[in-house]
Amino acid sequence: MIKRIHHISIVVRDMEEAFLFYRDALGLPLHKITILEDQGVKAALLPLGGSEIELLEPIRPDTGIARFLERRGEGLHHICLETDDIDRELDGLNARDVQLIDEQPRPGLAGRVCFVHPGAHHGVLVELAQPTE
């Protein structure tokens, strides 16, 4: 079952510059920051109520996030919905012939994750996440 919005993801050119607004000006605490080598990004999570804002900064030019930044500039990248059973959600989406990017969950900053193609629903990239913490 989809439980809540886990996070909203924003692509930035410079994480430290983005912290000047999200952390320093808005006062959002930094929950987690890490390098996801397989995705070529530096990622940070900042809690906000029952959800989080995720900042993504490309660390290599050959990644999807870097290409997104080059084409569209900084801004909203995706919305992440939390589920208590990502495998069941994927089975349901497959049964409805929803276009997916990931056929199987993979490790991500938010736990086990998968992405639903933006062409499946009004141009919005949706991530499903089952937290492992």
Task: Provide the descriptors you would attach to this structure in a database record.
single chain, 133 residues, alpha+beta, 3 helices
Structural class: alpha+beta
Taking the sheet with the most strands, its summary is: 8 strands, mixed
> Rough shape?
globular
Number of domains: 1
Q: How do the strands of the widest beta sheet line up side by side?
A: 2-3-4-1-5-8-7-6
Which spans have pLDDT < 50 for at least 5 consecutive residues? none
Q: Percent of residues in helical segments? A: 10-25%
How many beta strands in the DSSP annotation? 8
Mean pLDDT equals 94
Strand content: 35-45%
Quickly name the level 1 CATH class: Alpha Beta
What separation lies between the terminal Cα atoms?
18 Å
Report the CATH architecture. Roll
String of helices and strands: EHEEEHEHEEE
Count of discrete alpha- or pi-helical segments spanning 4 or more residues? 3
Radius of gyration: 15 Å
Can you tell me the CATH superfamily? 2,3-Dihydroxybiphenyl 1,2-Dioxygenase, domain 1
CATH topology, anyone?
Answer: 2,3-Dihydroxybiphenyl 1,2-Dioxygenase, domain 1
